[in-house]
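user: Please supply your own:

assistant:
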Amino acid sequence: MKKRIIIILLFIFIILTVISSYTVWSNNSVGPQFTGGDRLLIIGITSILFIYYMKLDRPAQLAHATIKTEKKEKDTNTKETFTKPKTTFEDVAGLDEVKEELAEVIDFINQSEKYKKMGAKIPKGILFHGPPGTGKTLLASAVAGETKSTFFSASGSEFVEKYVGVGAKRIRTLFEKAKKEAPSVIFIDEVDAIGAKRHLDSNNEKDQTLNQLLVELDGFNTDQTVVVIAATNRMDLLDEALLRPGRFDRHMYISNPNVRAREEILKVHTKNKPLCPKIEIKNLARKTHGMSGAHLANISNEAAIIAVREDAEVISLDHFDQAIERVIAGLQVRNPTVLQKEKEIVAFHEAGHALVGKILGTDMVQKVSIIPRGQALGYVLQMPEDDRYIYTQQELYHKIMVMLGGRAAEQLIFNHLSTGAKDDLKKATELGMQMVCDYGMSDLGYVYNEANMIHAMSNDLNKEMNHIVKGCFEKTIHQLKTYEKQLNDIAKALLDRETLNGDELEELLGDFKQAPVKTKEELEAV
């Protein structure tokens, strides 16, 4: 708006300058008459407006607040350098254990005197680690909100520069500001960008930045209430000096939410959305096994977008099912150009996955579809009824068999091998490797193989993994031969309807009897 006004004024005075100059050159008595003083005033104002416009049109030079000089910092508006977040623990659903652990830190900041009387010191650093999207940043903001502290937020990459000393200076400036605004909370996201392990080939600038961070963590005065919270997805990359007590005293693992936490998170993300009365949040929580808080927020938002797209007044269960498929399987291909022969192969492939899952009773089959989504020509949605943390060797065999059910069905019906099983083979191989190297479930013994051992024993490991996967594949072929009629029924129904949900699959199979549980010897016997 300001720029537009300057342009209009500049345009008017340019016209006046031209008119005044024209009257002098032409000696024309018709029209407005300008004296010499008027012409000088008009030219002067025009020049000033032009110079001001050029300065206004110049792009702004942006710089991070932490690298300003001391003189500029005094003139900087405090709102640009830090915030006072209003987020509290009420905005953080789930994570009850972590919130209880953080309650001590919050109480220390709010009532530091009673701790100082007992000689207790506030934890200097708290490290959140775990998979992405689990709420680490939100927790840090909630700590500042609960204590009404000043919140300084930065990313680890902001301290990484090619010029030596710049990153260390930014660290010093950040901590100086935090001390001045105490009580305060410093949050460094993706701390592994500056806190990675030091070695002979490491970058000198990164080492100096990390050294400065270590010094600052050690150098807090006891009368300053400053808490440093860092977050990372790769704790194994961090330098040991950063993790020792006295720097980051508390390490808190933020995992993906369990079914109860997912229910609470979904309630938070749907409280302002018009939901159909038939929707049960508890059932939605069961359908989203293994998903993070970020996934759940995305699913809630996608369901609302789909409802708007369909001109619906409320968000229904079908909208949430579509949103879950969108997040898990990808975008639906609207006009697929799949040959009929390929469609038949995909139908039997997905039918093989679903049938083997029903035979072995591994996970609940929610949906089987041959509608292309993302890069997949078909998919099977399987979710466990309960959260599981420990699996037996037998259950892992069953999981591999379900993964190989598609390729086994193709070989049984069409007597060929296709490229459609690429992702299944990748997952089966990864699980087989975990069984051999991590869980000690092979003839190599009850050992855990580290990276150097894996490299040295690669041939033996490959033989064991191939033995596991091959044995499961042949057992899967045997199971599908036994239930070949049901395999054909599912594939035919998929070719007719393209999609089957869990209830339709149950109805199609009728009084289908689940196969008895196999022992390890029976599974390996081919």
In short: The first strand starts at residue 125 and ends at 129. Residues 49 and 308 are 49 Å apart (CA to CA). The domain at 340-524 is CATH 1.20.58.760 (Methane Monooxygenase Hydroxylase; Chain G, domain 1). Residues 60-80 have pLDDT under 50 and may be disordered.
